[in-house]
Amino acid sequence: MWKGDRVKHKLVWFVPEEALERTRDAVFAAGAGRIGEYKRCSWYTHGEGTFLGGAKTDPAIGERGREERVVEYRVETVVPAERAREVVDALLAAHPYEEVAFDLYPLVEL
Question: What is the reported pTM?
Answer without folding.
Answer: 0.89
